[in-house]
Amino acid sequence: MIFIIGQEGLLINNFIAIDQFDTNPDVKYCFLSSAHSRHCQSLTNEWQFDGIYCSPITAKVLSVISSRKKRYGISKKWIRTLDLNVWHKMDGFRVMLIDSNHAPGAVMFIIEGEHRNVLGRILYTGFFRADARFYQNVIGLSILQEEKFDVICIDSTYVDFTRNFTGLEFPNRRSSAKEAADLILVLKRKGVESVAIPVPIIGYEGFLVNISRELNCKIWLHPERFEIAHILGINDYFSDIKEDTYIWTCSEIESQQVLCTTNSHIIKASVAPYITSNVSLNSEREHMIQYSDHCSSAELRSFLSLLSFSRIIAIPNELSRLMEDELQNLSLSGAETMHCKEEHGNPEELLFDPCRISWRLGFHF
């Protein structure tokens, strides 16, 4: 098998592209793991190749993004939806999509070739987080453990960075939302009139909903994200009228403009400043909450220890040979599973999961 690894995705045998969309004329199948901007940046209204395969929710979100953003102008006619947890037969291989526990619609891909000497068994994780909620997906986990993988392409967003931080665990996402809500209350008591939370176009839905539930207060979304909230069935937690609430969202780029043109405080949700030295806050009105939709180093190692595989490759950060060998030695090592448990007293207090609710409602493109 021939793998070409890019910053955004993977090309397999010059025949199958996952999150890596360029002008290679030999590619016959294109798969999109999520509507994340990093993966969608090559999808424009000039797209002239075959269809893009993705989950039903990603298809819905792409439709919104394409209608509102000129740079993501891919036509609906190119979008092909695939249901999760079932095999889909293609030319010379079959593929299955599994919830990746990242953003709504985000999936992993399992690809199996009809002739293993030509195309083996491959797992492309895409962006994912193997926390307690991931392991609640018993069906997905059992499928991942059925057979040995020839290659696993992992989400290495933080794996290299956390190498020297083996004791650093990312907080569970519910506690991050609770911490953000508590901070907003403190700021409100100090007379702060408005708070803005930078978020990407897709992702952080559970984080925002749990803040809204903690404070019993709606959060303002710009029209694009509000339309996506409608698709996910969570619009009751949000408003499209800014004057209705003191909690807003904005893009990362817009956050600096908010600081310069208003008296608002900014609450950023990320683990990047805690594991890298080149990220800092630029104002006393900026605050940081630890939050991640990606695996910590320990979570990734626990995930790999439950699977059988021969080779590891990584996106977006290339692994050192030492790290590669270390991760490959985890194959079915039976390492103690390490993930952050969701803190709750009853089922109603579990982290809100709009992604799974949306799939359960059976949306189709």
From TrEMBL:
GO terms for biological process: double-strand break repair via nonhomologous end joining; interstrand cross-link repair; telomere maintenance. InterPro entries: RibonucZ/Hydroxyglut_hydro (IPR036866). GO terms for molecular function: 5'-3' DNA exonuclease activity; damaged DNA binding. This is DRMBL domain-containing protein. It comes from Onchocerca ochengi (Filarial nematode worm). The lineage of its organism: Eukaryota, Metazoa, Ecdysozoa, Nematoda, Chromadorea.
